Amino acid sequence: MKSKHDKEESQTMMTLTRSLATGLCAAAFFSAVVAPVQGQDAPYDLEKFRSVLDDSKLQAPTSSPTKIKQGDFRGASNEYFFLDKTGRYMTFTVEGDSNRSELRQSTGDWDTATETPQRLIARVRVFVPEDEGLEQFTFLQIHDKKNGSEGLNKPLLRLTRRSDYRDKQDHLWAHIRTPENGNEPISLKNFATKNVDLGPRPEGFFDVEIRVQKSRMTVAINGQTKVDMDVSYWNGLNNYFKAGVYNQNNGRSKVEFESLRFSNSDN
């Protein structure tokens, strides 16, 4: 039989165990509730973003596995994708070379020869990275889709912010894939890049429209056409839009969208 001392010691240990368990449960609860998902709310909470999110999946911080699948955006936010603290702007951010936080259009697969206009329309703010080592990051793309042996799996167009490129500091650029030899079909062995200066990065929000129709691609910044070119060399490839951030160097990138939509009409 246990002595009175043993019973008292056993009761004390039980009390301490219960207190510890209670403390751990409370800590776990507060950790789950208070631990930062670096944003206040899910972008899907705002009606203005539902159309583009219903037609997208989120890739972060790598392209695979998918971070948020198409149809799963209701209530979804994470460290890469969230509404800003004011609850008004859809925010994308990521750190690390070759990492990304991007929406990938799901019902794309459109040809640059399309008779139907394919448009990405956005109002966006591009932030200067705190890390000077992040010389370049992409915030909008047209990308082709690789199907087996078909396709290049390369972007036709990337819109980027660059800190110091061709003697231009803090400018936006359009990098456009073209054939190196115009007499041969574009391929992984026959491509070059055309680089178009879009001007200094605006401090606040600015308007962007990318449009493709009948083998012609245009890019407009704040209503001014900066790119207008024949892209018939890209015909026959399936394409989709991407929006967010994709790092070409180490550092953290960030953009906010006041509005973003994909459209296949002139409205």
From TrEMBL:
Pfam family, one: Alginate_lyase2
Organism taxonomic ancestry: Bacteria, Pseudomonadati, Planctomycetota, Planctomycetia, Pirellulales
Domain Alginate lyase: 57-263
Organism: Aporhodopirellula rubra
Signal peptide boundaries: none
Superkingdom of source: Bacteria
Name of this protein: Alginate lyase 2 domain-containing protein
